[in-house]
Specification:
Strand order of the largest sheet: 5-4-1-6-11-8-12
CATH class of the largest domain: Alpha Beta
Number of helices: 8
Subunit structure: Homotetramer.
Radius of gyration: 22 Å
CATH superfamily of the largest domain: Spore Coat Polysaccharide Biosynthesis Protein SpsA, Chain A
EC number: 2.7.7.27
Pathway: Glycan biosynthesis; glycogen biosynthesis
Distance between the termini: 46 Å
Organism: Weissella cibaria
GO molecular function: ATP binding; glucose-1-phosphate adenylyltransferase activity
Mean pLDDT: 89
CATH topology of the largest domain: Spore Coat Polysaccharide Biosynthesis Protein SpsA, Chain A
């Protein structure tokens, strides 16, 4: 890009609503779509938008996420002057060892941002599924002479009370921010994607933290402070596919939507590719007695049983006479001979014992955690819940 932009990906979320799937894994590292992880979508958006100066802010279970991303070469981000830098919490001499909020994470990494010397800083979440051309948001930011631009998503009015809501004038200037209002005045929900003019944001963060003023979180502190001081704050309306996959139900649903060849995400779109860390894998093998209907499968899969309306990820084994129906089986998992899995998510490297039966419903998806061994003769049925 002609403009000097540094992107900060907030990728430290625990994702507690995903239960056993994130017990030892940060939410952005959760597998999705057979061969991807959730963070791949944000990284691919950056690559396709030609933004290559990227800081990845991690906190919870960072090892696997950091191993997956490396220096960003799989996304083409490791160009001269670019690349992905891993930014983790550290003891700063003031007793701070962890990031206390979104804005505090940026404050703790000001030295990194200053070394990049950007004009603009883009703050992104690493745990959403979407395709977005960030250059269009930046162009809108500049055209409005904005100090801050917030990406918003129109949501159904009856769901607006679940979100941070931006109330705007006819020129999309934000007049008011309401955090989960009981009686929302609009349906423009914040997506947690921001473009800031770095020098001004830096002034606010330094003045806040050094002056004893609460400036920990963008939604709770920074945006209200900008509005109170009459800064130019604008909304950028995003109207394409976006999902935060923050619950078991939404994660299962977003995966299932990929089975519709007309789905909005369109992973096969060559004009906006989604990239991921790649490894050499064996080809898929489908046994003669196998039956496969309306399903998505990727590399190194072995199927000897019956698979219908399911998503089978890299390195999965479905043994003879096993049945997988309306389910998501994550990388490296094994479904034993004669087992039956229906309306479920089977976590990464989990194993279902031969003959085991796992049955959820469309409204109550069964879950086997990452690395878990499920054998109904030795394990209580409670392992299937996400509580």
């Amino acid at each position: 890009m002609d403009d000097k932009v540094t992107a900060l990906i907030l990728a430290g979320g625990q994702g507690s609503r995903l239960g056993k799937l994130t017990k030892n894994l940060a939410k952005p590292a959760v597998p999705f779509g057979g061969r991807y992880r959730i963070i791949d979508f944000t990284l691919s958006n950056l690559a396709n938008s030609n933004i290559t100066s990227v800081g990845q802010v991690t906190q919870y279970e960072p090892y696997e996420l950091n191993q997956h991303i490396g220096n960003g070469s799989d996304w083409g981000l490791n160009v001269m002057g670019g690349g992905v830098s891993i930014l983790q919490p550290y003891a700063d001499g003031k007793g701070n060892k962890f990031f206390e909020g979104t804005a505090h994470a940026i404050y703790q990494n000001m030295a990194y941002i200053d070394r990049q010397d950007p004009e603009y800083v883009m703050i992104l979440s690493g745990d959403h599924i979407y395709k977005m051309d960030y250059t269009k948001m930046l162009e809108a930011h500049k055209a409005n002479h904005a100090d801050l631009t917030v990406s918003v998503m129109p949501v159904p009015m009856d769901e607006a009370s679940r979100f941070g809501i931006m109330n705007t004038d006819n020129d999309h200037k934000i007049l008011e921010f309401e955090e989960k209002p009981a009686q929302p005045k609009s349906n423009l929900a914040s997506m947690g994607i921001y473009v800031f003019n770095w020098r001004k944001l830096r002034e606010y963060l330094v003045a806040g933290f050094e002056g004893g003023n609460d400036m920990v979180d963008f939604g709770k502190n920074v945006i209200p402070a900008y509005l109170a001081n009459n800064e130019n704050v604008y909304a950028y309306a995003f109207k394409d596919y976006w999902s935060d996959v923050g619950t078991i139900q939404s994660l299962w649903q977003a995966n299932m939507e990929l089975l519709d060849k007309h789905n909005e995400l369109q992973l096969a779109d060559r004009h906006w590719r989604i990239y991921s860390h790649t490894t050499n894998q064996n080809p898929m093998y489908v046994a003669q007695e196998a039956q496969i209907h309306d399903s998505l499968m990727v590399d190194a899969v072995y199927v000897g049983g019956r698979v219908s309306h399911s998503l089978i990820s890299t390195g999965v084994t479905v043994e003879e006479h096993a049945i997988v129906d309306h389910s998501v089986v994550m990388p490296g998992a094994k479904v034993g001979a004669g087992a039956a899995v229906s309306y479920a998510i089977v976590g990464e490297d989990a194993e279902i014992a031969p003959g085991a039966v796992i049955v959820g419903t469309p409204d109550d998806i069964a879950v086997v955690g990452c690395g878990e061994y499920y054998n109904p003769t030795t394990v209580n049925e409670g392992v299937l819940t996400n509580a």
